[in-house]
Amino acid sequence: MAEITRVTLKRPDDWHVHFRDGVMLQTVVPATAREFARAIVMPNLVPPVTDIAAAEAYRQRILDAVPAGRTFTPLMTAYLTDQTSPETLREGAKRGVFSAVKLYPAGATTNSASGVTDIAKVMPVLEVMQEIGLPLLIHGEVTSPEIDIFDREAVFIERTLGPLLASLPALKVVLEHVTTKEAVDFVSAQDASGIGATITAHHLMINRTDLFKGGIRPHLYCLPIAKREVHRQALRRAAASGDRRFFLGTDTAPHAKHLKEAACGCAGVYSAPVAMPIYAQAFDEMGALDKLEAFASLNGPAFYGLAANTDTITLLRKPWTVPASIAVDGGSELVPFMAGETLNWQLA
Ligand code: DOR
Ligand code: ZN
């Protein structure tokens, strides 16, 4: 069979991004808007985006950073805290400001200090979300220090997510950035109308051994942390299955180079500049390029009750080298995922 040299698909969306704010936002929004039509925007700013006014103002700052001539729609999320009121979510959803609500267990990851300390405290809010069909996006890791970092996702599913779905069976849930076979199996066993899971580009490419290849690799450190190879293989199978429960979410999470290359480096992989080329490479390696459109462009909109995009993008099999770093106004730098490496695919 002749080698596939180009792939055209309906324009994809990114169902999980961190845009940050200020000069960083000016640098990273164009990278996402170049490939994707829409993105679900994470609310973990400092202070977090917890109300309608903050989400509207943040949405406008994002729109102002979209390069002229591009159409890009940021879909905003509310940051769930122990104090979030059901009225705020009802009103924000009704006004089309909130597309979803993000649950960070307090202390689980970057800027999660204001997150939920105990699911029991937010049950009344989750009941309202179930009633109005507002999706809950979950960072699925337990925070107990005694639980091994590589087990935190699997333990969260067992202790928290399973019981939560049992008590709120009609709540729409996305288990974000899944990293384990346990997560894939759990999601695959749920009713497809109510559950989704995002899969990042980097978790399709690296396992935990890569974090220490030849030395410690701070730019591959993110949360949930990459797991063993058996888990990466499970993620690859899920992404390439065409199953509508699995869709694209890069979790692109920029941190300045000096904050990654530090004694205590920040968690987050900046993947926006390479996202679609990397997904194409992973699907190509699996002989599943015909399944890329479902994963990148169809399954996510279907979950969120939106139409797929009507325009298209084309990816070409044409090697290019990822820049070693990207300048941010004000003097800092970003190191993208796969910096300095040669990728096989690029946007036409
Ligand atoms: O690695 C991560 N970085 N995981 C998260 O959950 C948050 C993100 C960030 O905001 O930097
Ligand atoms: Zn994230």
Describe what this molecule looks like in 3D:
The chain is built from eleven helices and 13 strands. An eight-stranded parallel β-sheet has the order 2-3-4-5-6-7-8-9. The protein has a three-stranded antiparallel β-sheet with strand order 1-10-13. The chain has one domain: Metal-dependent hydrolases (TIM Barrel, Alpha-Beta Barrel), CATH 3.20.20. It has 348 residues and is an alpha/beta fold. It is 34% helix and 17% strand. 47% of the residues are buried. The two termini are 23 Å apart. Bound molecules: (4S)-2,6-dioxohexahydropyrimidine-4-carboxylic acid and zinc ion.
For the structure shown, list the relevant keywords:
alpha/beta; 348 residues; TIM Barrel; 34% helix; globular; 11 helices; binds zinc ion; single chain; eight-stranded parallel sheet
